Amino acid sequence: MKTQNIPVSPAFVVISWLAMLGGTLIYLIGLWRAEMALNEKGYYLSLLVLGLFSAVSLQKTVRDRLENIPTTHLYHMICLLAFAIAVLLLAVGLWNATLLPSEKGFYGVSFFMALFGAVAVQKNTRDSVHSRETAAPLEQDPET
Known about the structure:
By secondary structure, the chain is mainly α. The chain has a domain at about 40-125. About 80% of the residues lie in helices and about 0% in strands. The chain has four helices and no strands. The mean pLDDT is about 85.
C-alpha cells in the first residue's frame, strides 16, 4: 500500500500534542497528589510508561505493515501483548483500588487520553516527515 501525500493539519498536530502532554501531565499530577503508598504510585507510573511505549510501537508496526515496510510478526504480537497488558493491569488496579469512583475515572480518562495523544503525535510526525520527503524534489547530479 502506497502512502498518500496528505498534508498534516496544524490544528490536529496541536490537539494531538495537547492530548498527549495534557493526559500525561494530569495523570502524573494526580499521582503526585494522591494519598497512596509509594509502591502504588510506582505501579501506576510504570503502567503509563508501558502504555505509552506499547501504543506508539503498536501503531508504528501496524502502519509499517500497511505500507509494506518489513516488520516481524513476533514484534507486532509483542507490541499488541504489551498494550493489552498495560490496559488490563490498569483496569485491574483501578478495580481493586481504594479510590473514589471519580478518582478511578480520572486515572482511566487521563491514561487513555495520553495514549491517544501519543499515537496521534507519532502519526503526525511520520506523516509530516513523509510529506517533506515527497514534497522536496530530488536533486539530480548534472554530471549524470
